[in-house]
Amino acid sequence: MSDALRPMARPRLYEQVLDRLRSYVSEGDLGAGDRLPPERELAQRLGVSRASVKQAIVVLEVQGLVEVRHGGGTYLTRAGLDPEPVERLVERKRRLPDVLEAREALETKLAELAAERRTDLDLAALHDALHQMSDEIEAGGYGVEGDRLFHTAVTAAAHSGLLAEFMRSITEQIAESRNESLRQPGRPKRSLAQHRAILEAIETGRGKAAAAVMRRHVRTVAKVRLLEWNPDESA
């Protein structure tokens, strides 16, 4: 039977609120640090429920486009609002747990092997990656490239061809989980500190300790706002 006449999805009201907010920010030339009107005011001006506004704000928060300060309002984290389509967020939310589960299984073993097999060149690459991540964060970024280089260096230091191949096979999904994690408030500096602890364990040849620290790190990565978000929450 043809799927062409399947029931049509109704647009969520908060998605319409997102469109209005994007236009408001663009027309007002608002930038990082600027505050959005209070939820109650937005609801009144848009003629929608406060719940619909709240759900729209949550979507922006999930994407790292705004920072919600409890009792202090909602602030833009960058110039303009260009949220991803909600359906794309829903799809990423669906696959993220599997990606994080795979990362924990693979990267804890890679860290353990790296502590046992690393060379001086491997250690130099790990140190260089940490320096880059630190520089990116100091410059106001998320440290995404430095983070990527660090985990790539750990994989290389393990000297396991098959595990490295497994990691390459999920490169795109790992990058997605990395971006999701590092845009959480305060996460870049915390990840940098955890990377330093991983490097210390690898550098001193403590395989079990390296695996344990990497496991804690990946579980921190798993704590993202996206996984708490319910796209169909009643509004």
What does it look like?
It is a single chain. By secondary structure, the chain is mostly helical. The chain is built from eleven helices and two strands. The chain is elongated, with a radius of gyration of 21 Å. Helix content is 68%, strand content 3%. The chain has a two-stranded antiparallel ribbon with strand order 1-2. The mean pLDDT is 90. Helix 2 crosses helix 3 (50-62) and helix 5 (120-138) runs antiparallel to helix 9. The longest helix is centred in the middle third of the chain and has 32 residues, at 86-117.
Q: Report strand %.
A: under 5%
Weakly predicted, low-confidence segments: none
For the record, give the distance between the C-alpha atoms at the N and C termini, rounded to a whole number.
34 Å
Oligomer: single chain
Return the structural class: mainly alpha
- Which sequence of strands runs across the widest sheet? 1-2
Largest sheet: number of strands, sense, barrel closure: 2 strands, antiparallel
List the secondary-structure elements in sequence, H or E.
HHHEEHHHHHHHH
Number of strands: 2
Task: Name the average pLDDT.
Answer: 90
The dominant shape is elongated
Number of helices: 11
Write the layout of secondary structure elements.
Layout: H1 13-27, H2 39-46, H3 50-62, E1 66-69, E2 73-76, H4 86-117, H5 120-138, H6 144-158, H7 161-169, H8 171-182, H9 187-203, H10 207-221, H11 225-228
Antiparallel strand pairs: 1-2
Entry keywords:
235 residues; mainly alpha; 11 helices; two-stranded antiparallel sheet
